[in-house]
Protein: Molybdopterin-containing oxidoreductase family iron-sulfur binding subunit
Organism: Flavobacterium arsenatis
Amino acid sequence: MSSNKKYWKSVEELNENSSIVETLRNNEFVEAIPTDEFLGDEATLSASSTTRRDFLKYVGFSTAAASLVACEGPVIKSIPYVVQPEQIIPGVADYYATTVFDGFDFANLLVKTREGRPIKIENNTITGAKFSANARVHASILSLYDSMRLKQPKIAGKTATWSEVDSKVKASLADAKAKGGQVVLLTNTLASPSTEKLIAEFIAANPTAKHVIYDAVSSSEALDAFETAYGERALVDYDFSKAATIVSVGADFLGDWQGGGYDAGYAQGRIPKNGKMSKHFQFESNMTLSGAAADKRVPMTTAMQKQALVKIYNIVTGAAVAVNLGKFDAEVTKAAQQLKASGSKGVLVSGIDDKNAQLLVLAINNALSSEAFTTSGTRQIRKGSNAKVSQLVNDMKAGSVHTLIMSGVNPAYSLPNSKEFADALKKVTLSVSVSLKEDETALVSNIAIGTTHYLESWNDLSLTKGTYSLTQPTIRPLFAETKQFQDILLSWTGNTANYYDYLKANSASYLGGTTWNKVVHDGVFVGAVSVATGGSADFAGAANALAQSKNASGLELVLYTKTGMGDGQQANNPWLQEFPDPITRVSWDNYITISKVDADNLKLENYNVANGGLNGSYVDLEVGVAKLEKVPVIIQPGQAVGTVGLSLGYGKKAALKEEMQVGVNAYVLYNNFNNIQSVKITKATGDHEFACVQLQKTLMGRGDIIKETTLEVFNTKNAKDWNIQPMVSLDHNPVKATEVDLWTSFDRSVGHHFNLSIDLNACTGCGACVIACHAENNVPVVGKSEVRRSRDMHWLRIDRYYSSETTFAGDNTKKEEFDGLFGDKGSLGGFGEMEIASENPQVAFQPVMCQHCNHAPCETVCPVAATSHSRQGQNHMAYNRCVGTRYCANNCPYKVRRFNWFLYSKNSEFDYHMNDDLGRMVLNPDVNVRSRGVMEKCSMCIQMTQKTILDAKRDGRAIKDGEFQTACSAACSSGAMIFGDVNDKESKVAALKADDRMYHLLEHVGTQPNVIYHVKVRNT
């Protein structure tokens, strides 16, 4: 029976003639309360004539509106397709194979699109697609939606039409041709056969033109050495899976050395199989990803590294060049002898920016007949020449360059003499910059042209000799007035074809009979691979020259590229700015890394403040006449004494939101394109505030978090000796912790049950999984201030631990000596010492996300049942239930839950991609964008697992092993993360769960996680 009762929203409704009643009757929402008029600040409030009665009445009238707002979301009108495209099914993702190369990063990709929007980067796993996406490539999807992109051409800083631009450039080219003026195309390395052919045609049409290739981070010395020895300007593509002994002298091959992409091959040899694994020696200055993974790491200056390289050359080839290694002689000799003993199963690499050093690398690997070193399938991703770039600047200063056309480069930022370049640019008759952004070079050029993102473009690439990859657009250009560089060049060459037709016609000579459509579908084609031969080099002369190397006067500065920022092209990308560096765990900054010894000498310090934030000293740096002021300092365990490190890619100002204008521009110290400089350091006033996500540096003897052993123990003892199971007391008898439980277990053998396996031997800390998780799960960016307050929202973190002794085994011994908490020095004395990392520590990386415990402590304390467990092993979050008590976070032993302190979407306080319409195009519609006041965490990508189940159900088939994936497992190129169904006894994850190396994190707590780890084995 219906009720006839009448309810009033406020007392004002009793007044029939009230205008407010009419407003409530006709409008769903009343006007917002202008509280800022009388509650804006204390002064305004005290001066207000509003009485207490008026205030309460005013708020009372608006109660109806507030309740309506709480129940009804804002209306967003969607316009349906008039004619729906056949290939687009709303709610179903499409995938496009493509290949990216931006002059620095490269990968073979699958791009996930939803309703025409690219939203996620995946790895292309087809045969022949050998390069996986790193963290920066995964983040590049967000750079597509950068609202500060250059959207239309400009002449002298003012918006212009394309006809005006074309007219001006063609007139300049004609004038240069008539006067014999020099025309220069300045580009990054292109690695594109069709683009290089097009440039050759442009030069043929303009006889005074030439092409200069400029790589911001130079590999010119290695290129020069290979060209001398083999007659080809290329880099060796090493295969570390074929190496039993790896010796690296200053090469971070798990980072950005030679473009990176070596981690997959390396990891294959690092997982112990049949009692064997590779042995890795690392000689370096900065603590790098490669040094962190090494079995034996020796910190030394670059001058000592050069001596070490000559010593290895002597031992491997039998030469007798005099060197003086001092205290490092024994370590270098041991590594060289083991390298020589390995023969063809050994390989040596070096990152020293010196042609002589790179010649010795070729000589040593040839003497070994190394299988990991091959001159076939060379890398084509670096072609720059330091000499030619320097000559161009000199020509510009002399006024002999008539027209300069630049694409893919930003020399006004990245050249060490960038001011000199900008001044010389004024002497060029016409300068043109083709760029994604109105960057430093575009601002000082006569004409700035906005170009397309690689996800809006057609292109071809030959990343390695003998392979042919295609870049295809996944969306129409977001800005109609932007044009691809190749289309622009075609127009200026007088060719009326568009680049797609030009590319398709040109591709036939590279496809070897394969159809165009197949290569577009697959993304890559592998043809015949030739071996580079010929050429000669004076290896003995190179060794003698290198042996004369001396230590730098004063401290040695080692410039490097950070895992998150690279060469700085994506400084506008908030995902990368907030990405914590794998080694220092600091985000939103670059900084000097310095050893504790040198820091003490200079009276530099790091310390923690009351809110947990990390602070550090400032220094001023001088390299020759170049100077950088107020550079913050991080005291870095493992930094070679006498050296400091500083990363490139920061300090950009142009075309960046204010929040992302962080750090200092280290390129100004990149003198003569050499990453090693002699530097003078002076302490500056003030302290810097870092955003560091991990303040505990060591394990402090907690050997159950990172379990590790040596290869010898692994091979000679039972698993119970090196994978120790925690014991508890039951009825006064010791039993395994895993056999005791407070809860009755459910039968989980029916249906799917998901586990994620993480192998600590294969994890390199690269962070690709972190960015992939951001993209897949709409993880918000919170900014430096919030990260500093420990409010970062990363669903997946990669903990990095140092040993407080020289080894983690030494830590355990020291802990036993302290007799727990009651040693002679007391708890603070004993464990206080263990909080300090060794000067040359061992390093371990451990990815940690929600462990999806079968007996989850978070679930029992939630007062509103917002978090619960599924039969499939996933710990669920019902955001609408969550009221933000944070009991679950308090009860989680893994500390993997994140609390939304603020609304990060559509909030100008967090002015990143979620605050503008363009940036929000990257959001995944399958994952809810969380609001303020709720807990969030890793969901084990339930949207992905459910889609796999539904697809198989629709097709009426069984799910194959490997189909189930999470964002992190799909992004992991080293194979460290394997996801799957443990109820499928034939699955890889089921075998990994049964492996002797398997353990759970904090097993003694009894949470029974569905994330499993594998004991780290070191070949020491």
In short: Residues 868 and 876 are 5 Å apart (CA to CA).
